[in-house]
Write a structure and sequence with these properties.
The complex is a heterodimer of chains A (541) and B (438). Chain A is α+β, with helices and mostly antiparallel strands. In chain A, α8 packs parallel to α9. The two termini of chain A are 37 Å apart. In chain B, the strands form 3 sheets. Chain B has a 4-stranded parallel sheet, sandwiched between helices. Chain B has a 4-stranded mixed sheet with strand order 6-5-10-8, covered by helices on one side. In chain B, strands 7-9 form a two-stranded antiparallel ribbon. In chain B, β5 and β6 form a beta hairpin. The termini of chain B are far apart. Classes of the chains: A alpha+beta (541), B alpha/beta (438). At the A-B interface, β5 and α2 of A face α13, α14 and α15 of B.
Chain lengths: 541, 438
């Protein structure tokens, strides 16, 4: 494997890489603004310039010093190369670029959302001056409402053009462009257009400064209070890797988490902004026919158990309706439990909503697929199908349930609902006229008012488990926040119903599944969380 | 043999009253397009060798050897393009405009020869947006040349049909930078490209492309006609041939004059431009404002491609000499120059985008009478961190701005220091001064 020397440290890389990328992959930071691995290279911010000594093509043992500073983002790493990113010349350039960038930058970090995760701040600590030598009037540039989700503070912009390249290369929509020239130039949308593509929120993530901000997150929380929990998107079958950012039990925003095989650096706006169901419109008490019931946790479990067992003497009189929004472990536990009570109990799955067709985004120049917005609006249909296939026996389609109820065959239906009500209409039709309807729901609407007993459960952000995406990739996610008061996870309800010891443990359920032959669940681990390399620690100051 | 009279300008009379547009018939009647016929009887390799032997260096500013540039084209990669750099926007430079305004066919013949020698499919004459009249003249001349079969025909001995088009810019100095030109030609924003790939490998529309200046191409017919030795008989050892010099500023007869390279600036001013007008020679810009300034003791500077090291300027540039006298306010002059660069910076690279604007604001303040003692060193330092450390920006614009600022400060420090007063408090901006004055 090729090796180079960067500031006295060995950097090893594989294949063709630029100096900067090889360093970043090896955990070394060279300051950069305009460079983003997912976008084309423009080498225009000029802060990543380094001094290099390159092996002489004629005599590889000999190193030749390149007289110019070279952009590390654009210069290929060569085996045997020596890179000086902290040499006096390189640092002089970094300092000069920082001074230039800060000349007209407003000193409004105290009211800027980006503060705390701002590259300009980070590098300013390292290379900036404590005092400005700019004794002239600062340029004033306007704030612009450029799209449904995004606001642009032009005066904070450093013209790295990452956002422009994003709309040209990733979303392929090209709404953004640079207008004007020289120091008067600004990012803007073309006249009569707005930044409204389904991936628009990503420009906020890639903006290295506080120029492009999220309207949804604007002024709601200082970023240093936020805790990040690695998670998986529950909105579609894509299995997009996300990070739930929360503080004191409240989610403030969702950000993409890099996964080269799934969503790369991006997520769609419906993932980014679709999470208000975590905190709004929640069922918070057990209810009978819509009337809230004062029941302890143990009492509600007992009632649920009783209600199912009531008609269980007749084989095949019970049905469990699964939902592709629950984790595979939860569905497995639920199905196991119902089959323990009645080995001939029916199992079915509420089919996920399919919203048109997959929307594929391509780079208009290269034709490469950059992002796919999945039409199937549920995270875990494959997991549910696996459970059904494993348990087998009496498995039917949701459409056949109504016939069995009418025929008097099915008397009890236990329904796991989805948090969005996608399947509410088909569920209503399917279970109409059933003797005993038991519902687990995050919402107070839907089937709750008809249920003889409805128990509140929590959303995916409040539990952990695994989802299996459209391609069969099994991905685990962590619990981000504590369950809303009086709610618990579907998994913990069935854990208790199964009389298992201790508290609900998805990993233990996965072991059970694996012992039953679902071996792919044996070694599911959380993917490593790629945090931005921390530049400065408080103790360094 | 030295310079024996105009070569490129031989069809354009000295007397302005007698100058008129030379059409293709008049051009051919005076030997025009003979060189093309002669070239077509040669092999491409012979022509390229002849150009290398003639030591023809690019007339656009950098002085890069034309033949070597042609040699960079990958051997079997087609189609190939020729982009003619007619984005003549360097202040003080108007040689290509003058030549083409009266004798457009010499350029077209040069293009046809270069196309033949390099098997070019398409030539684009990228002309500065402000050159309305010149674009019209070129289009008409092109029409005449097409009618005579100079363009739009198979290049003899090949299947390549060579076409030539006039492409008008939209008025940006940066589009004279060769890769900025290519971007603009492709219909994009004129932001210079990062290299590699170099234009010779992937230029216009990602195809191998040669970019030559108008005057460089206009030299080709004469090199073919009279040979490399004749060409080298003019000029100096490293800078061969005749050269168009534009003289402007405080002289009696500003204009374009042809002389051999290496001519003394004093000769150019006195023999051709009618001498200094009102006052004494003080300073001159050798070839476009980005080259820096020649000092009072450099009146006799020999203008060739190697003046850079000799006289502490960036180079000869476009040989558009701007003459300043003891009546010229050099601080205001530099302010105007820096305003130009701040206005024309494309805004891609941080140092240039911010640095040029900073220097412009600072010089505005100094001109307004609010200069501070530390401004001198600061100006010098910005100039250094912006451009003179090699590689800090993608193209040379920042470097040009830096050379102008640095040489003005180095060669005329007293002019600047006289404007810097210690009683102006740090932290007070020009706007604040203006507000206080009201």
């Amino acid at each position: 494997m090729p090796t180079m020397d960067v500031d006295g440290k060995k950097v090893v890389w594989d294949g063709k890489k630029m100096i900067l990328q090889a360093c970043l992959d090896a955990g070394m930071e060279i300051p950069h603004y305009c460079y983003h691995q997912g976008l084309s290279i423009v080498a225009s911010c000029r802060i990543c310039l380094v001094e290099i000594e390159s092996p002489d093509p004629k005599d590889p043992a000999k190193l030749v010093k390149v007289p110019k500073l070279v952009p590390s983002c654009q210069t290929p790493a060569v085996d045997g190369m020596k890179v000086h990113s902290i040499s006096p010349k390189s640092v002089a350039n970094q300092k000069a670029v920082m001074e230039f960038l800060l000349l007209n930058h407003p000193l409004d970090c105290p009211v800027c959302d980006q503060a705390g995760e701002c590259h300009l701040q980070d590098y300013s600590y390292q290379y900036g001056r404590s005092e400005s030598r700019f004794d002239e009037d600062k340029a004033k540039k306007p704030k612009k409402d450029i799209g449904k989700h995004v606001v642009l503070y032009s005066d904070r912009c450093i013209m790295c053009t990452r956002c422009v390249r994003f709309t040209r290369e990733i979303s392929g929509t090209g709404e953004l462009a640079v207008f004007g020239r020289g120091h008067r130039e600004e990012i803007d949308v073309f006249q009569g257009r707005s930044l409204d593509n389904p991936l628009s929120g990503n420009v906020i993530d890639i903006c290295p400064v506080g120029a492009l901000l999220d309207k949804d997150f604007l002024f709601t929380q200082r970023v240093w209070f936020l805790k990040k929990t690695p998670s998986i998107s529950p909105f579609s079958s894509g299995g997009e890797n996300i990070s739930i950012e929360h503080n004191q039990g409240r989610v403030y925003r969702i950000k993409p988490r890099f996964n080269a095989d799934v969503n790369k650096w991006w997520i769609s706006d419906d993932i980014r902004y679709g999470w208000d169901f975590i905190h709004n419109n929640r069922l918070q008490t057990p209810a009978a026919k819509g009337v809230p019931q004062e029941l302890s946790a143990a009492q509600s479990i007992g009632q649920l158990d009783q209600a199912v067992k009531k008609n269980a003497a007749t084989p095949g009189a019970t049905i469990l309706v699964l939902n592709a929004f629950d984790t595979t472990e939860e569905m497995f536990l639920a199905a196991q439990w119902i089959r323990r009570i009645d080995p001939q109990a029916w199992l079915t799955l509420a089919e996920p909503k399919i919203d048109g067709e997959d929307q594929v985004f391509k780079n208009p120049t290269t034709g490469a697929v950059t992002y796919t917005l999945r039409a199937e609006k549920a995270p875990n249909r494959r997991g549910a199908e696996k459970v059904l296939a494993k348990l087998a026996g009496n498995v039917c389609k949701l459409a056949d349930v109504q016939g069995k109820i009418k025929a008097g065959q099915i008397k009890t239906a236990m329904v796991l609902t989805d948090p969005f009500g996608h399947a509410d209409a088909s569920l209503q039709t399917a279970v109409a006229g059933v003797d005993t309807l038991l519902v687990l729901s995050t919402r107070p609407d839907g089937l709750v008012s008809q249920a003889s007993l409805a128990l509140p459960v929590c959303t995916w952000a409040e539990k952990s488990g695994v989802f299996e995406n459209y391609s069969g990739l099994i991905q685990a996610f962590k619990q981000a926040i504590a369950p809303l008061e009086n709610t618990r996870s579907t998994g913990s309800i069935f854990w208790d119903l199964m009389d298992l010891a201790g508290t609900y443990d998805p990993a233990a359920v996965r072991r059970m599944m694996s012992e039953l032959g679902m071996t792919e669940y044996a070694a599911v681990a959380l993917p490593e969380h790629h945090e931005k390399i921390e530049l400065m620690q408080f103790t360094d100051l | 043999m030295a310079f024996a009279g105009p070569v490129l300008l031989k069809r354009i009379p000295d007397d302005p009253a007698k100058r008129k547009l030379i059409n293709i018939d008049q051009y051919m009647a005076t030997g025009g397009y003979e060189s093309l016929r002669k070239a077509q009887a040669m092999t491409p390799e012979q022509i390229i060798q002849l150009v290398i032997d003639s030591n023809l260096r690019g007339r656009g500013g950098a002085g890069f050897p034309c033949g070597s540039k042609w040699k960079f084209l990958p051997k079997d990669l087609h189609p190939r393009y020729l982009a003619v750099n007619f984005d003549e926007s360097e202040p003080g430079t108007f040689k290509d405009r003058y030549l083409t305004e009266y004798d457009p066919h010499v350029l077209l013949e040069g293009i046809a020869i270069a196309a033949f020698a390099n098997r070019i499919t398409t030539s684009y004459i990228y002309i500065r947006g402000e050159y309305h009249l010149q674009a019209k003249i070129l289009e008409k001349a092109l029409e005449e040349a097409y009618a005579k079969g100079i363009f739009g025909q198979k290049i003899p001995g090949t299947d390549i049909v060579h076409n030539c088009y006039v492409h008008r810019g939209a008025g940006a100095y940066i589009c004279g930078e060769e890769t900025g030109l290519l971007e603009s030609l492709e219909g994009k924003r004129g932001w210079p490209r990062i290299k590699p790939p170099f234009p010779a490998i992937a230029g216009a529309f990602a195809k191998p492309t040669i970019i030559n200046n108008v005057e460089t191409l206009a030299c080709l017919p004469y090199i073919i006609e009279y040979g490399a030795d004749w060409f080298k008989s003019m000029g100096t050892a490293s800078s061969a041939g005749p050269k168009l010099f534009g003289v402007s500023g405080l002289v009696h007869k500003p204009g374009v004059y042809e002389e051999e390279l290496g001519i003394k600036m004093s000769t150019l001013i006195e023999k051709y431009a009618g001498g200094i007008k009102g006052g004494k020679y003080r300073a001159a810009i050798p070839g476009g404002v980005s080259m820096g300034v020649l000092g009072t003791d450099q009146y006799d500077a020999e203008l060739d491609f190697d003046i850079g090291k000799k006289y502490n300027v960036l180079g000869l540039g476009t040989a558009g000499v701007i003459v300043m006298t003891d009546k010229t306010d050099l601080v205001v002059m530099l302010r105007n120059i820096v305003r130009f660069f701040a206005h024309e910076s494309c805004g891609q690279c941080t140092p240039c985008r911010e640095g040029t604007a900073w220097m412009h604001k600072m010089l505005n303040r100094i001109v307004a009478g609010y200069g501070k003692p530390q401004d001198f060193d600061l100006l010098m330092e910005i100039g250094l961190s912006m451009g003179s450390m090699p590689g800090t920006t993608i193209c040379g614009l920042a470097d040009g701005a830096n050379w102008a600022v640095r040489t003005f400060l180095q060669k005329f420090p007293e002019d600047f220091k006289a404007r810097l007063k210690s009683d102006h408090v740090q932290g007070v901006t020009l706007d604040a001064h203006a507000a206080a004055a009201v």
